[in-house]
Design a protein that fits this description.
This protein has 120 residues and is mainly α. The protein is built from five helices and no strands. The two termini are 48 Å apart.
Length: 120
C-alpha cells in the first residue's frame, strides 16, 4: 500500500502515531457540543442558534465553522420555514394546451421547411 501511495513505511507509521493537531482536537470538541445543542433542541436549531448556544457556553467560534461541522455530522433541522416569496401572478388550474403542429415528425423534405426551437 505504501508503494502504491508513494509513501515511505516510516513516514506512514510516523503519521499514524502522531497525536491529533490542535485544530482537529478543537473541531472534535466543538462537534460534540454542537450535537448536544442540536439534540437538546429536538433537532430544530439551525447553525445560527447552535452558534449562539456555543457562545453562551463560553466556546467562541465562527458561525461558518458551526455550519461546516453540522454539515459533516449530517445535522439538518427538520422544521426550517421556507422563505415567503411574493408573486404577482397566480398559477392557472388548467395549463394551456400547446399545439403539436409537426405531429412529432421532425424530418423535412427540404431545408427551411420545418423550423423548430428548444429553449430548455
Amino acid at each position: 500500500m505504501c508503494a502504491w501511495l508513494d509513501v515511505s513505511r516510516s513516514g506512514f507509521y510516523e503519521w499514524r502515531d502522531r497525536p491529533a493537531s490542535a485544530t482537529a482536537t478543537r473541531r472534535g470538541e466543538l462537534a460534540t457540543l454542537i450535537v448536544r445543542s442540536f439534540t437538546a433542541s429536538d433537532g430544530t436549531y439551525g447553525y445560527r442558534r447552535v452558534h449562539a448556544d456555543l457562545l453562551a457556553w463560553g466556546r467562541p467560534c465562527g458561525p461558518e465553522l458551526v455550519r461546516a461541522l453540522m454539515r459533516e455530522q449530517g445535522l439538518e433541522p427538520w422544521c426550517q420555514p421556507r422563505p415567503w416569496r411574493h408573486t404577482l401572478t397566480e398559477p392557472d388550474q388548467t395549463p394551456a394546451a400547446i399545439p403539436d403542429l409537426l405531429q412529432r415528425d421532425f424530418t423535412a423534405d427540404a431545408p427551411g421547411t420545418k423550423m423548430v426551437g428548444d429553449i430548455t
